[in-house]
C-alpha cells in the first residue's frame, strides 16, 4: 500500500509494522501477542522464567511483562507438569508448555498420549494446551538433543501435530495452535531458530491447521516434506532447475490433520513423488504419506513413490556421522534424479 | 475440633454409603449372571472413604475419583442410571460407550474429572486444576484419590512436589487398601505409612482410619478448608482393606482369610449404622427404609441401563476432537 492510497483509513489500534525477524523471534512474538490478547494463556516449562528466558531465549523478557504467575518455571518433571497443564486446560486456561528439547518429551509421554489425547473422546472435555517442542538436529548435539519424534504423536488419536518451516508459519500456526481446543504438539526446528529470517506480519496472522502450502511450484515431481527439510528440498529444486527438472515442494505445515488433498493435487499434477523428512524413515510420517499417494493416486504415478528419511539409528553427534544420518539437498537431488529417470 | 456434621448430614452420608454398597452388590450380581460388559471393579470396604472425603467438598470444588470411589460419583450427582449405563456400555452413559465401568466418568458440569487406567495421572491433572483456581483467584479446591500402588510411582512424587511448590489448593486421598492388585504392601514398600511420602515433599500429611466415615470426613473437611484459605495441599492416608478382588474376575485367593475376617468386623457401613443407632440418631426401622429406598433406586437404574440403546457404530468417530 502506498502513501498516496486515498482509501486508507486509520485503524482502531495503532498498526504495528511487519518486521523482518528470525524463526525464533516469530515464535516469541506469537507467544507474546497471544498472551497480551488472552489472559487465559500462560507458559510453563523449565528455565523459561526470570531473566533467563529459556534454553533458547524464546521467552526473554516475558517474566518482566507478564510476571511469574503467567510464566511459570517448573521443577524438572515433564510428566507432572504436562499433566498439570491438562488440569489447567480442563478448567479453561490455555497453557503453552515448553519442553526444553523435543527429545525430553518422552518423559511426559503418558500425560500426553494416555491422558490428554483420550479425554475428549471419552468424556467430551476439551484439553486446549500446546506443547512447544524444539526438535531436529544438524547442530551436532547428539542422540538426546537432535530428535524428530513427531511420528509418535501423529500415531496418537486425539492430538494435533504442527511443524512450521518459516517464520511466518511459526507465528501463524502458533496462534492457531493456542486457540485450538485440542492438545497440539508444536514441533519447532532448532536449526532454523536463528538461521532463517523473513518478513512476518504484525498482529493476527493465524494460519489454519491442516493446510499445506506450495513452497515452490513445479511440474515434474512433487517433494513432500516439512520443517527444516523444506529448505533442503527447495535448495535441491534450485539446483535441479539448471538441469531442466522442475520440482514442486509441498510444505505440509501440519502433520495431523494432514492435508492429503494438497498432496494428491500435487502428485496428480506431477506424476512423481518423493517424501522426505529428517526423522528416521522406518514407520515415519513419510510412510503414511507414501501409502496415501499409492492408495489414492496410483494411476497418476509415473514412478514409484520414494521415501528419504534419516537412517534408523540414534542421531549421532560427530559431524560426518550426523551428516550421513540426515537428508540434505544433495541427497534429495539424487533421489529426484533417480525418480525422474525412472 | 468439633464435628462439622449435623445429624441430618450424617443420615445423608449413611444413605450414600448404603446406595454405594447396594449398587456395587447389584453390579456384582449382574456380572455373575453374565449381564455385564467387560471388567468391573469392587467397592466393598472403600465406602467410608469415597463418601466421607467426597462429602467434605463444596459444590464448586472439583474431584477426580478413581475406580473404588463409586460413592463419590454418586454424592456428586452422577446418577446410578448414568453410571450403570456406563458399566454396560450404552449410548446413554457418561462416556457414550467410549470408556468402561467407572473409567472416564468425568463431567465438568458436576466438577468431576474422569480418570484413566494409569491411575496416578489424576494426580498432576488435579494439581493443575488447583493451580488454575489459584491463577484465577477462585476459592475452589481440587481433590483426587489414588491407591497404595500409585504412591510408588514417580508421578506421585512429581505431583506432590508440584503441589507443594505452588501451594496448590489440593487434597490427595490415598486409599491404602493393603494390596495393589495381588501385591501386598510388604512387597511394595518398606515404610509403615505412605503419609511419610507426602511429608518428604513438605506436604502436610494425615493418617486416618479409612473405615470410620466421620473420621475421614472430619480430617478431609479440615484439609479442604485449609486449602481454600491458602494453607496449601494436604495428603490424607486412609487405612483400609480391599474386601473383594481387584476386579470382578479376581477371587483374591492371595489374601490371607484371617486378614479379611479381621477387617470384616470393621465394615464401614456396619460401624456407622451402629453409631447412628447407639446415638439415637436413627432407628433400625429408618435404616431399613434407607436400604429399601436404595434397592428401589438401583432396580430402576438396572432397568434404565439395560433398556438403553447401544451406541450406534455410525457415531464411532464422533468426539475424538473438540470442534
Write the H/E string of chain B, N to C: HHEHHHEHEEEHEHEHHH
Largest sheet of chain B: 5 strands, parallel
User: Mind telling me the C-alpha Rg of chain A?
Assistant: 20 Å
Number of domains of chain A: 2
List the domain count of chain B as a whole number: 1
Low-pLDDT runs of chain B: none
What is the CATH class designation of chain B?
Alpha Beta
Number of strands of chain A: 14
Describe the structure.
The complex is a heterodimer of chains A (342) and B (323). Chain A is an alpha/beta fold. Chain A folds into two domains: 21-200, Thiamin diphosphate (ThDP)-binding fold, Pyr/PP domains (Rossmann fold), CATH 3.40.50; 213-340, Rossmann fold, CATH 3.40.50. In chain A, 36% of the residues lie in helices and 19% in strands. Chain A contains eleven helices and 14 strands. Chain A has helices at 23-37, 62-66, 78-90, 109-123, 150-154, 167-179, 229-241, 260-270, 285-297, 319-325, 329-340; strands at residues 19-22, 41-45, 71-73, 94-98, 130-135, 160-162, 184-189, 197-200, 213-216, 221-225, 247-251, 254-256, 273-280, 306-310. In chain A, the strands form three sheets. Chain A has a seven-stranded mixed sheet, with helices on both faces. A five-stranded mixed sheet of chain A has the order 9-11-10-13-14, with helices on both faces. In chain A, strands 1-8 form a two-stranded antiparallel ribbon. In chain A, helix 1 (23-37) packs parallel to helix 6. Chain A starts with 18 loop residues before the first strand and ends with a helix. Chain B has helices at 7-32, 47-55, 70-75, 80-87, 122-135, 154-165, 195-200, 213-228, 257-264, 268-278, 284-307, and strands at residues 62-64, 142-147, 170-176, 179-180, 183-184, 204-209, 234-239. The relative contact order of chain B is 0.17. In chain B, the strands form two sheets. Chain B has a five-stranded parallel sheet with strand order 1-2-3-7-6, sandwiched between helices. Chain B has one domain (7-307): Thiamin diphosphate (ThDP)-binding fold, Pyr/PP domains (Rossmann fold). Chain B is an alpha/beta fold. In chain B, helix 1 (7-32) packs across helix 2. Chain B is built from eleven helices and seven strands. The interface between A and B is large, with 41 and 41 residues.
Amino acid at each position: 500500500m502506498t502513501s498516496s492510497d486515498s482509501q486508507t483509513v486509520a485503524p482502531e489500534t495503532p498498526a504495528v509494522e511487519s518486521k523482518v525477524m528470525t524463526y525464533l523471534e516469530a515464535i516469541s512474538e506469537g507467544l507474546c501477542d497471544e498472551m497480551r490478547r488472552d489472559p487465559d494463556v500462560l507458559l510453563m516449562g523449565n528455565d523459561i522464567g526470570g531473566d533467563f528466558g529459556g534454553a533458547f531465549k524464546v521467552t526473554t523478557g516475558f517474566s518482566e511483562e507478564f510476571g511469574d504467575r503467567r510464566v511459570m518455571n517448573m521443577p524438572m518433571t515433564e510428566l507432572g507438569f504436562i499433566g498439570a497443564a491438562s488440569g489447567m486446560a480442563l478448567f479453561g486456561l490455555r497453557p503453552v508448555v515448553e519442553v526444553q528439547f523435543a527429545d525430553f518429551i518422552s518423559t511426559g509421554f503418558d500425560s500426553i498420549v494416555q491422558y490428554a489425547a483420550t479425554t475428549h473422546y471419552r468424556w467430551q472435555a476439551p484439553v486446549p494446551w500446546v506443547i512447544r517442542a524444539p526438535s531436529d538436529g544438524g547442530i551436532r548435539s547428539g542422540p538426546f538433543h537432535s530428535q524428530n519424534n513427531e511420528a509418535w504423536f501423529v500415531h496418537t488419536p486425539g492430538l494435533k501435530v504442527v511443524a512450521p518451516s518459516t517464520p511466518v508459519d511459526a507465528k501463524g500456526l502458533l496462534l492457531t495452535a493456542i486457540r485450538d481446543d485440542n492438545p497440539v504438539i508444536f514441533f519447532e526446528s532448532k536449526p532454523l531458530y536463528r538461521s532463517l529470517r523473513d518478513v512476518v506480519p504484525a498482529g493476527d496472522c493465524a494460519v489454519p491447521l491442516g493446510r499445506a502450502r506450495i513452497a515452490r511450484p513445479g511440474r515434474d515431481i512433487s517433494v513432500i516434506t516439512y520443517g527444516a527439510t523444506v529448505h533442503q528440498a527447495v535448495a535441491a529444486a534450485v539446483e535441479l532447475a539448471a538441469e531442466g527438472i522442475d520440482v514442486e515442494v509441498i510444505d505440509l505445515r501440519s502433520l495431523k490433520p494432514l492435508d492429503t488433498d494438497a498432496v494428491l493435487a500435487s502428485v496428480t499434477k506431477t506424476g512423481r513423488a518423493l517424501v522426505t523428512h529428517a526423522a528416521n524413515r522406518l514407520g515415519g510420517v513419510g510412510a503414511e504419506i507414501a501409502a496415501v499417494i499409492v492408495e489414492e493416486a496410483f494411476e497418476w504415478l509415473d514412478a514409484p513413490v520414494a521415501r528419504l528419511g534419516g537412517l534408523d539409528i540414534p542421531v549421532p553427534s560427530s559431524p560426518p556421522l550426523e551428516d550421513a544420518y540426515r537428508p540434505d539437498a544433495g541427497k534429495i537431488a539424487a533421489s529426484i534424479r533417480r525418480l525422474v529417470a525412472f | 475440633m468439633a464435628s462439622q456434621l449435623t445429624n441430618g448430614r450424617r443420615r445423608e452420608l449413611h444413605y450414600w454409603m448404603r446406595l454405594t454398597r447396594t449398587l456395587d452388590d447389584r453390579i456384582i450380581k449382574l456380572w455373575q449372571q453374565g449381564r455385564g460388559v467387560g471388567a468391573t471393579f469392587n467397592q466393598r470396604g472403600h465406602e467410608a472413604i469415597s463418601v466421607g472425603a467426597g462429602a467434605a467438598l463444596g459444590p464448586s470444588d472439583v474431584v477426580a475419583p478413581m475406580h473404588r470411589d463409586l460413592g463419590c460419583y454418586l454424592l456428586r450427582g452422577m446418577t446410578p442410571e448414568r453410571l450403570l449405563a456406563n458399566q454396560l456400555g450404552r449410548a446413554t452413559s457418561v462416556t457414550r460407550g467410549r470408556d468402561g465401568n467407572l473409567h472416564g466418568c468425568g463431567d465438568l458440569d458436576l466438577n468431576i474429572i474422569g480418570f484413566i487406567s494409569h491411575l496416578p495421572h489424576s494426580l498432576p491433572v488435579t494439581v493443575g486444576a488447583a493451580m488454575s483456581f489459584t491463577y484465577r483467584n477462585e476459592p475452589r479446591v481440587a481433590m483426587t484419590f489414588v491407591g497404595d500402588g500409585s504412591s510408588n510411582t514417580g508421578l506421585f512424587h512429581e505431583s506432590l512436589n508440584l503441589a507443594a511448590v505452588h501451594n496448590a489448593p489440593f487434597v490427595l486421598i490415598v486409599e491404602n487398601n493393603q494390596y495393589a492388585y495381588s501385591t501386598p504392601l510388604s512387597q511394595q514398600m518398606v515404610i509403615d505409612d505412605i503419609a511419610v511420602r507426602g511429608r518428604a515433599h513438605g506436604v502436610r500429611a494425615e493418617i486416618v482410619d479409612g473405615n470410620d466415615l466421620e473420621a475421614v470426613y472430619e480430617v478431609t473437611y479440615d484439609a479442604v478448608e485449609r486449602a481454600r484459605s491458602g494453607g496449601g495441599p494436604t495428603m490424607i492416608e486412609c487405612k483400609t482393606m480391599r474386601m473383594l478382588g481387584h476386579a470382578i474376575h479376581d477371587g483374591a485367593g492371595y489374601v490371607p482369610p484371617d486378614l479379611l475376617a479381621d477387617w470384616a468386623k470393621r465394615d464401614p457401613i456396619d460401624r456407622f449404622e451402629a453409631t447412628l443407632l447407639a446415638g439415637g440418631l436413627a432407628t433400625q426401622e429408618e435404616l431399613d427404609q434407607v436400604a429399601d429406598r436404595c434397592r428401589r433406586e438401583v432396580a430402576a437404574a438396572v432397568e434404565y441401563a439395560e433398556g438403553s440403546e447401544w451406541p450406534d457404530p455410525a457415531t464411532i468417530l464422533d468426539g475424538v476432537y473438540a470442534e
